[in-house]
Amino acid sequence: MRVGTCGALAPGLALGELVIARESICADGTSRALGADGHAEADPALTEALIRQAPDAHVGTIVSVDLFYETAARGARHDALAVEMEAAALFAVGARAQVPVACVLTVSDTFDPAGARHRIDDHALLAAAETMGAAAIAALAA
Fold it and tell me: What is the homologous superfamily of the domain 2-141 according to CATH?
């Protein structure tokens, strides 16, 4: 289970909101080196269990990149909810090993139209991490 942070790409995503990835666009080198071609999918059953545990989360496609801040603008060129660095590689490893992998993220960064970054504060990040962790544990136990 990937539990982590992401930068918002979709309009309206706010700091601290949760995102559950059904798939990741492979804009990173690692997932492609592992054989992913364009998109890497999360495990459907584990993802559905995660959605049941975090029903208010935004669900959809994310994009995985090699350099987070330097490529946030490149990530925005994709039709994705959010940008992060690990999910596509983990989905690719899971597919190769036949191990279910899912991903829940919290929005830690937003970018205004001029590209300026806004970062989540420590208290909000801690609260989001606790929410994500509880959802992940419950989904794994389901």
Answer: Nucleoside phosphorylase domain (3.40.50.1580)
